[in-house]
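Problem: given the chain below (163 residues), write out its structure.
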Amino acid sequence: MSTLKYIAGYPEHVQAQVRALLDAGKLGEVLARRYGESHVVRTDRQLYDYTQGMKERYLRSAQPLHKVIYDSKLQVLKHALGTHTTVSRVQGAKLKASREIRIATVFREAPAEFLKMIVVHELAHLKEGDHNKAFYQLCTHMAADYHQLEFDLRLYLTALEQR
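Solution.
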């Protein structure tokens, strides 16, 4: 039995179903049928505009974003798919904060729903720092099917790893 690191926290019967799909070589096919459409958000500027549009729709009162980019080093160095950071600098007598979101480049080629899920996740961190009940309520406010997308994203990453 191989370990499925992206779904290790799920019940054994779920992991067994995923192993069966992997062994049959069908996991990628199942996901392609469900999430066939890719997105057109390819550049950092397009990603910023996409993220800013979601922020303006759902989180108007949140602090402004200064940078949103694809980061090719993210997955390898931080074992994360996206990060949000706040960089504070002293300028004279004022404290200036700059907020950044970095998205792993794997999402440049991923289905549109997965990009949406990771952007929703990182935007939710603007209001909620921890992965608590309020955080997940905010995620489902921005994407009603957030939990299903998160699970399917884990399957997508498993399928990519098995290639």
